[in-house]
Amino acid sequence: xxxxxxxxxxxxxxxxxxxxxxxxxxxxxxxxxxxxxxxxxxxxxxxxxxxxxxxxxxxxxxxxxxxxxxxxxxxxxxxxxxxxxxxxxxxxxxxxx
Length: 97
Prior knowledge:
alpha+beta, 3 helices, 43% helix, EC 4.2.1.96, PCD_sf, Pterin_deHydtase, Putative pterin-4-alpha-carbinolamine dehydratase
């Protein structure tokens, strides 16, 4: 999976493929998920951790009761790469169950 920083055109194209995800500050791919309960939110984070370990690509995670916010970036590329978008797609699959 490529860790090369994507161009603005490439980013726009990739964002269309990950509904619900957006950009923050130009370098972050972000999404929030809401769950019916705190234990379900924490269980989701546990599953996200397994995906992150498999990809060796770890998000910033904020848990606020039933809301989980994930932020991704590729530090070495100083921005977003294909790895961020593939990881985001996998997180969505985890959320869908």
